[in-house]
Amino acid sequence: MPPEHDDTPRKGKKVRVPFRRNRSPRRRRKDWTQQSRDSEDQNVDSVRGEQVVPRGDLSRQRTVIVHDVPTGDALRSGTVVAVRGLFADVDDGQHIWSCTIRRILRTRSIDERNSVTVGDHVRFSMGTGRKGVAEEGAIESVELRRGQLSRRAGRRTQIIVANVDQAIIVSSAARPDPKPHLIDRYIVSALAGAITPVICMNKIDLDTEDFAAGLLERYEKLGYSTLGTSAETGQGVDTLRDMLKGKESVIAGQSGVGKSSLLNAVQPGLELRTGDVIHKYDKGRHTTTTATLIRLDIGGYVVDTPGIRALDLSIVPRGELEAHFVDLARFVPDCKFPDCTHIHEANCAVKDAVERGDIHPERYDSYVRLFTEPA
Questions:
Q1: Tens of pLDDT along 19-41?
Q2: What is the SS3 assignment for 187?
């Protein structure tokens, strides 16, 4: 019989943490014009006792109670395989546990949209069992991340997946048509997160005009690993399986390109949900709604991610974008101005290379669009 639930209050200590940005009070009122209109003939004066400058760090923080948590052998280690709201599924190698995410972790996550993400290596504790209630754990800490795929979500950063070695960027030869600009965005996100990008063109059997093959050749000349696949015919599936074997990977791309179908072909019996393309709009249906970590029988794991039609990369500083375009980077030292943006300056070696055909116009257009997007 499991032990009865212990209702004894847990001891804790007070910790000062920053306010979330959207919960910080206004430091001074800015509605004087509206006040004047509402007051008709009355004179409206500013509040003389209003605080304009904060008193210091204390005015930007609040106190939370951090309860004592188990340490040492009482904590278990695991990998997050799925996140659903305030709960995460954690695999400790023997069992997948449903865990809550400690409030202190969520409170301290100011700049990030998610304090815990798929692929995170975490330490978690198990609570005392109660009769008739499934045993669950609590994530106490998140280990330092490496190799992560991120994007901007509102005013914060959303980490799509963490602790992966490579990103399989999947596009399709048709239905939906390939989007080179979106591929470039994924490449930049992968390189910025210290992940090796691999360009995969699925549905290659539909490439009747060799457009997709030309795209693969373009990226192959830039030094990226590429492959053409077809989940329908099996073309390239063995090559993809070899690329995934023993590695920690993420498979990403827009909806409808066949990411889940490819994984079903790589590991028969997986039975991931798949959907058809909406032919009227040439867009895929969202069949994968949350990122999920899948252990592979051949070793390693792959994270299946939901389709993304727009990838906001304003988290990457503008000054670092050129470094993530290998075809642009080799011409940058020849620009006349050391702070050249490669957009409007004269004597720009990058623009000259575009005119000569040494840089593909679509690649340059991807750089310009990323550079000029609002932060």
A1: 555 544 555 555 556 665 555 55
A2: helix
Residue 373, CA atoms < 13 Å, CB-side half-sphere: 18
> Which class for 320: exposed (0-12), middle (13-18), buried (19 or more C-beta within 10 A)?
exposed
Rg, C-alpha atoms of the chain: 26
Rounded Cα–Cα distance for residues 105 and 115 (Å): 6
Which architecture, in CATH terms, is 72-144? Beta Barrel (2.40)
Task: State the sign of the Cα–Cα–Cα–Cα dihedral 286, 102, 108, 79.
Answer: negative
Please report which residue ranges of the chain form alpha helices under DSSP H: 32-38, 103-108, 180-192, 211-221, 237-244, 259-266, 318-321, 326-329, 349-356, 361-372
Nearest C-alpha neighbor of 146 from the set 128, 120, 172, 127: 120
Please name every residue paired with 61 in a beta bridge, in sequence order, or none if there are none: 18
- Rounded to whole angstroms, the Cα distance separating 362 from 181 reads 7
Cβ 253 vs Cβ 169: under 8 Å: yes
pLDDT (tens digit per residue) in 191-237 = 999 999 999 999 999 999 999 999 999 999 999 999 999 999 999 99
Instruction: Give 318-372's CATH code, choosing from 3.30.420.40, 1.10.40.50, 1.20.200.10, 1.20.140.10.
Output: 1.10.40.50
Identity at 238, one-letter amino acid code: D
